[in-house]
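Bumping with the actual sequence this time:
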Amino acid sequence: MKVFKPFIDYYGENEISPVAQDISNITKHFEMRNSLYMALGIPSRLIEGRSVIEFGPGSGYNALFTLSLSPAKYLLVEGNPTGLKNIGQLFAGRDNVENLHVVESYIEEFNTAEKFDLVICEGVISNQLNPSEFLKHVASFSASSGLVVINCMDSVSFLSENLRRFVSFYMTDADLPVRDNVEKLLPVWKDHLDSIKDMTRPHEDWILDNMLQPLNGAMLSISDAVKALRDDFYVYKASPDFFTDWRWFKKIHGDERDKTNDIVLNEYERSVHNLLDYKKEFSPRDPKENLQLLELCERVNSDVTQFMVSRDPKYVELILELTKQIECNLKSVDSDFSKIFEDYRNGLNQVVSGVTDIDFGHFTSFFGRGQQYLSFVRHE
C-alpha cells in the first residue's frame, strides 16, 4: 500500500512547485534573506567557506541568497520534479554554481555519512505525517557545533489561514482541476493578500499551497521542535525573537547549559497568543489561557481537515461556535479580536447563503505569524 507523502504527492499530481518569490528586485530579496539569517545568528561570513545542506528548497529562490555567500559546498535535496526543473532554470549562469550540487531524493529517504556546518529546512517539516521524527532525520546531518535552521507552525499561528481554508473548501469542488478552483478563489482572497504590504509570493501559489493543499499531517510547534531535539541541540535564536535569557554567562556551564531549552519552552507558552496577528505585539500572559487557546485552535484545524474530506455542512456551525470561544479567550488581550471574528462569521454566513461579493470586514487584513524560524546548535 502506497504511503501518502505530504507536499510531494500533491505537487507531483498537479505538476506544480507553488513556492515562487518575486525576485525582480534581487537586492531587496537578498536584504530580506540577510535579515532573517542575522535574526537567527548567522552573519554572512559565517557561511563563507562552510558546508551547507538544504532540504526541500522548492524552486530555489531562497537558495539564491545562500549560494551568493560563497559556501564551500552547497547541497540541495529536492524530491519534486517540477521544483528540480525550476532550480536548473533559476541557477543557470549564476556565480558559484560549481559549488552547488543538487540531489533528487525524498528527504526522509536521503542518507549520507557527510556532516554539514549548516542544515536548512524551510516550510517542509510541519504537516509531515510524523514531523518530530522528520525533524530528527534532518538534524542528524549537522556536524558537531553545527547549526540547524527550521520552520515551526502551530494551530494559533495558522488560525487565520485555517479559517480561510474552510471558506475555500466550501466554495470549491474537489472534482474539478485544481487550476479551476484557483481561478474561483483568486477574487475572493485578492483584497486579503493585497493587505500584506511585503508579500513576495504570487497569489496563485499562496492559494495552491495554503488553501487547496490537503495538509493531512501534523503541525510542528516551537514546543514540539525543542522537545524533539533537546537531547542533542539547544535553541540558538528565533525569528520572531520571543525569548530572552538573562543568565550571567559565567553561570552557564554543566547542566545549566541545558536550561536554555526550558527557557524557550516557558516563553513560548507565555507568548503563543502573539502568533495570532503579525501586526500586533502583546504582553505575556498566563500559560493556562494560552494552552486553552491552542486547544481551541487545534479543534479548528481538526474540523477544517475533516470538512475537506466529508464536506458535511454541520462543520459550518462548529466553526462559527469555535470562533466565539476563541473570541472569549482573547477578550483580555485585545478588543479588536471581537470585530475580527464577528466579521469572519458574517462573511462565512454570506458564503453559505451564496453571496458572491463577500465582505469580510476587519477579518480581511487578519493574518497570523504563519511560520516561525528557529536555529539550533548541536552540542559539541
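The C-alpha cells above came from a reply further down the thread. The chain is about 45% helix and 10% strand.
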